[in-house]
Amino acid sequence: MSLPVAVQVYSVRNEAKSDLLGTLRKIKEMGYDGVEFAGLYGYAPADIKKMCDELGLVPISAHVPYLDMVADPEGVLAQYAEIGVKFVAVPYLTAEYRPGTDKFPEVIENIKTIGAVANKLGITLLYHNHDFEFLKIDGKYALDILYEEVPADLLQTELDTCWVNIGGENPADYIMKYSGRCPVVHLKDFFGEKSDDMYELIGIEKKAPTRPSNFEFRPVGSGLQNFSAILEASEKAGAQWVIVEQDNPSMGLKPLECIEKSREYLKTLGY
Question: In CATH, what number is assigned to the domain containing residue 204?
Fold first, then answer.
């Protein structure tokens, strides 16, 4: 049985900001089964839940800023429990909290705390990686250290297959490495080579590129990734959902056109 497919709403964030209900309706019409939120666009959790219920979209997960969850884990996570999400992910670490800094051990301890609060609310905490977690500390990737230090009952993986690849590993193999611990897999395609200004491309860090980059995010199936292998590994490893994410549009397409192209491609693979 093929896995259900969701889309990270961050992929169409400007459209969602101007018309959330209309954007969710378009997502449903494209054939997506669910959505992963990154912000609530000023709506109350009950309103978000109602929109998803009425459209028949599963609000499967949400990306919630790390520092928000540290500051008020119960209050913040309760909002997402009200929406009905099954998973909440730590989406990103700013530079001062990343592996190799003095604060990374603190991050590991905080994730344990957040994971325990999530469990009490019926939510499973995930960690969504980029490539900076593929820094080696004492011969081990920081990402692997995180999953060794935090028990599986407090933290599961949300492997982002684009960043795993950019980090130097084979996405399908890495998914299999976390078999039984990867309920959600991010499907993300790309073209080009890693550059020094990668996070400008996500739309987070604003700085001038230090050298020209040919890197771009692409609709799923339009770049360098082997999605047949990734999807096969996801199923074998026990994934429950796959989620399309495209941080910025490319190929002359608008954001909604990009996620539609991704969905159409996945249908050709039987998803």
Answer: 3.20.20.150
Domain that residue 41 falls in: 5-268
Q: Is 85 exposed, middle or buried (0-12, 13-18, 19+ CB in 10 A)?
A: buried
pTM of model > 0.85? yes
Cα-trace Rg, the chain: 17
Q: How far apart are CA 221 and CA 230, in angstroms?
A: 12
User: How many whole angstroms separate alpha carbon 215 and alpha carbon 190?
Assistant: 7
Q: Is 143 exposed, middle or buried (0-12, 13-18, 19+ CB in 10 A)?
A: buried
Q: Write out the two tokens for 178.
A: 């976390």
Q: What are phi and psi of 124, to 5 degrees?
A: -100, 130
CB atoms < 10 A from the CB of 270, how many?
8
pLDDT average per 10 residues of sequence, the chain (271 residues):
92 98 98 97 98 98 98 98 98 95 96 98 98 93 97 98 94 98 98 66 48 80 97 98 97 98 97 96
DSSP codes joined into one string, 26-64: HHHHHT--EEEES--TT--HHHHHHHHHHHT-EEEEEE-
Compute the distance between CA of residue 263 and CA of residue 266 in angstroms, rounded to an integer.
Answer: 5
Domain count, the chain: 1
Return the structure tokens found at 99. Answer: 């592996």
Q: Which of 96, 167, 172, 177 is nearest to 132 (CA)?
A: 167
